[in-house]
Amino acid sequence: MTRRPDMAPQDLFAASLLEREALSPGARLLRGFARDDAPTLIDAVNKIANSAPFRCMATPGGRKMSVEMTNCGTAGWISDKRGYRYESEDPASGQPWPAMPETFLNLATRAATAGEFDGFEPDACLINRYSPGTRLSLHQDRDEQDFNAPIVSVSLGLSAIFLFGGDKRSGRPQRIRLDSGDVVVWGGPARLNFHGIAPIAEGCHPLTGRNRINLTFRKAL
Ligand code: MD6
Ligand code: FE
To answer: Would you say residue 17 has pLDDT above 50?
Structure first.
């Protein structure tokens, strides 16, 4: 957190709730930005999962990802033995992905603006569900057509350690704790940075039980 010796403790506390921490040029952590919306967001996730259930996708290499995923929006991110890509239909049902709820769109555009990316129009939201012990290995998000748009990532439920590297896979990534309601906005010079999630610690959260839910909003098409 930024050091602010000039501020009274109660103001420091208020500032810490809505801190805009720069992780690197183009990447900002908005602490607690989605905290008030979290219950509504989780209700919406549960509705989406009723029509497009969470599933472990296969990697192109033939392994199963440990993180469970689903999507909403006009495009959904999928992985199978043919590779990574966006599809307008859920391959499990052949139906279009559930529409992006208004609450999702509203939060994502406000967060992008707070992270200094105006005019963000996400058409895809990948929803990740982690249980204790699951992880997401270092990767780049590069299946989108336009790297000018940022990505907005919302953490809900159990906390996680976010691994945040540079534009090469090598090198030791930063480790950043993400709690429920924290939002990361990144784009510009950080858009292709490597990142991942360390194995989730055992725990139970009032909103999500033994799960961490992550929403990543993208402009895919
Ligand atoms: C997660 N997030 O937080 C995984 N990708 O569960 C991501 O893979 C991610 O947080 C691009 C931008 C922000 C992210
Ligand atoms: Fe990612």
So the answer is: no
